[in-house]
What does this fold into?
Amino acid sequence: MARASARAFFKLAGTRLIVVGLENIPDSACIVVANHASYLDGIILTAALPPHFAFVIKREMATAPLAGTLLTHLGAEFVERFDRKKGSSDARRVLRTAARGQALAFFPEGTFTETPGLAYFHAGAFVTAARNGLCVLPTVIHGARHILPAGRALPRRGPIVVEILAAVENDPTAPNAALHLKSASRRAILSKLTEPDLETQADR
It folds into this structure.
């Protein structure tokens, strides 16, 4: 029902949603990581992904109009970003969820700004994958920043494309499995995203 509602929302908003690469999603549990550019991103993945995915979202989104209500009903895993103690507790809960075989979707940037580009990736999604022996599917959301950028109240019309890329396989025996998953996933997303690498710019 949530997936159907999300798709209906985009249809009513005059937004065409195109999903590419669904065949890359395995039948077993996995981790999807996507770029984050808009408040619409959670709804976009709800409409695009199979219904067995749960979403790991910053806790502030729980109070966002429409998106927060939808994600709460979907059973989203809200995580605290600013309180270290609560954040650690949330991270342990997410690990337990993955250990039970739940497929999860993350926005590893954690938040988004008006500035176009791919920001620094937090490690949570990749640690979760590495510890549970799960593959990671890098996913690129095209068009969300144009449709509803930060600071805009109402969405514009236009297309949104969700591109699910080939899985980055997990090697739990590797000494830096989480770092490998993070680096490989980031490279894959940047190869398809028509926005700059903000992490590289920050290092200059």
